[in-house]
Amino acid sequence: MTTANNLVQGLLLGGLYAIFATGLSLMFGVMRLVNLAHGDFAILAAFLALVIVDGTGLHPLATLGIAVPAMFVLGYLLQRGVLNFTVGGDGLAPVLVTFGLSIVLQSLLLELFSADSRGLDAGAIEDTSLALGRLNVGWFRLLTLATGAAVLGGLQLLLARTRLGRELRATSDDPEAAQLVGVDHRHAFAMATGLALATVAIAGIFLGIRTTFSPALGPTRLIFAFEAVIIGGLGSLWGTLAGGMVLGLAQTLGAQVSPGWGVLTGHLVFLAVLAFRPSGLFGKPVTT
Amino acid sequence: MTTLDPRAGAGLVAVAVLGTAPLWARTSVLRTLIGFFTLLALATMWNLLAGYAGLVSIGQQAWIGVGAYGLYWLSDSAGLDPFAAVPLAALAAAVLSVPVAVLAFRLRGGYFAIGTWVIAEVLRLLVANISQLGGGTGVTVTALSGYDRQTRVYLTYWLAFAVGVGAVALAYLLLRRRLGLALMANRDSETGARSLGVDVYRVKLVVYVVAAFGCALAGAVIYLNLLRIQPDAAFSVNWSAYMIFIVVIGGVGTIEGPIVGTVLFVVVQETLAQHGAWYLILLGLLAVAVALRARHGLWGLVADRTGVSLFPVRRRLVLPPAPPPAPAPAPGGSP
After folding, report:
1. What ipTM was assigned to the predicted interfaces of this complex?
2. DSSP letter (8 states) at residue B73
């Protein structure tokens, strides 16, 4: 039964990776900007939740109500104050600036919270599970997957049905034309980054409940998010969820073979997709 | 031209002073200088990639690690002299970098950056799973025990010196050749370069392989100095952070930039050595500010105001003076 159990665990893990990947995908989709500090913002949100829990005694899941809006505002300001100045130009600046922010954020968290591993204790929900035949599926992991689906579905609806969604899509297609019909692309970009950091806050807090975290964990989260995006296929939101599940499965099954091979197997699956199906498993073929 | 260019004269004096450092410097100073020259080589390689080929890699630690473990395997396991193992390890990295480039070149821009990082992570995890290479705990290079301490430090210093100065010279010579012209044409307009017959893919591949070779060479020398190799340290993304901060602050896309940046980096690192990660926070913020406000870095600020260029690699169109009465002056100019 271990294999069947691992299959289920891997798929559920994919839900968490999908939440991480959504924000990365959104920012790239709207403004072709790859935020290399993406993972570090997730860890920042986890530490923010930890500070709130320590200070107020709130349940970790309840801190979402504070941390998610706070990260949205931070993302909006970051885009208006810094990242908008990197869009356009020679293409080096966005990578250099977000990588610099990543290192600064990691080092600051290290100075503030030390390198120790921390965790968010969500109490009973972490220990109880749903029995499906001979399989036991933890409630918290199911909740994570449901949240992932809700985040992706919500974003899909927002992009398809709302005024903001139309503005984001228009800006993505052609910022100058969007500007001509009255869309302020600086505001649209900032809304996209705000939404991205709001989703990454959810990811960070779910990560913090699921496992322990430390300041140095951000880069691996960025890499997993990126792998989920590429495996699923650029520009496909539901592909991202599938990509996250493929990655989660690869890591769980790899770790079953040998504990040191979990993450490595995920990387190898990513490289195989890159080599044999560069447009991703669910993306539209790209002709460039 | 019979008189010596003052820039070349100053350069020769600097090279002579630094080349004879073992005669006048203490061991601790030599070790700092080894760090300086290896960082200079790494930064110069990263600058070739990002500043000239438009390839922003955050995975150059892959080649530092390959150089380090190549040094260990060739000297401790295969029994070669460690100083001879250094260039061979770098050659191995160059060979390995070809298939890696083919894969990574499928990604562009920021995604290329993360892709190179993943490849470095793959190498780190592979090494950590190979018990012959010490696994996760690492290995110590013991083949150097045949040399007495002083000889070892002196030889390592001269090797680091050669690698640092050699990297700058290599970049300068490469950029003055056809390759440099192709790179700069591509940097300014990829479409324009293609339409003039530049094989952009091949040019980028050459630069990637040269950078892998250079980083592996520097990596092997770094661990010739440190001796203790651990996968988490040798394949650490911090190496890429150092390279990026040095080049961005010093001046991306200039040969002088990495030199200025490395001097500043080593000074800041040595000054703040007792204060944990603050030197990285300071340099990171400075790099972000420079990337936003002064795209050609500190050297760019100097060069824009004074017009000084220590390593002229730009090409200027010089029109021959047209003979006044000639019927129709021939168009064109010298490169």
Report:
1. 0.89
2. I
Q: Which amino acid is at A196?
A: A
Residue A271 and residue B118: Cβ atoms within 8 Å? yes
The C-alpha angle B38, B42, B46, rounded to 5 degrees, equals 170
Q: Is residue B265 less than 8 Å (CB to CB) from chain A?
A: no
State the Cα–Cα distance between residues A7 and B157, nearest whole angstrom.
Answer: 54
pTM: 0.90
d(Cα B225, Cα B64) in Å, to the nearest integer?
14
Q: Which of B109, B129, B284 sits opposite A91 (nearest CB)?
A: B109
Q: Which of B56, B106, B284 sits opposite A274 (nearest CB)?
A: B106
Residues B250-263: b if buried by 16+ CB within 10 A, e if exposed: bbbbbbbbbbbbbe
What confidence score (pLDDT) does residue A2 get? 78
> Closest to A93 (Cβ–Cβ): which among B276, B284, B291?
B291
Instruction: Name every chain A residue with its beta carbon within 8 A of the beta carbon of B237.
Output: 219
Task: Return the residue in B247, B279, B292 with the most chain A beta carbons within 10 A, the one to mutate for interface testing.
Answer: B292
Domain boundaries, chain A: 2-217
Residues of A numbered 3-22 whose beta carbons fall under 8 angstroms of chain B's beta carbons: which are they? Answer: none
Q: Is A172 left (phi over 0), alpha (psi -120 to 50) or beta?
A: alpha
Closest CA to B256 of B215, B302, B289: B302
Domain ranges, ordered by start, for chain B: 18-236, 237-311
Identify the residue with better confidence: B328 or A35: A35
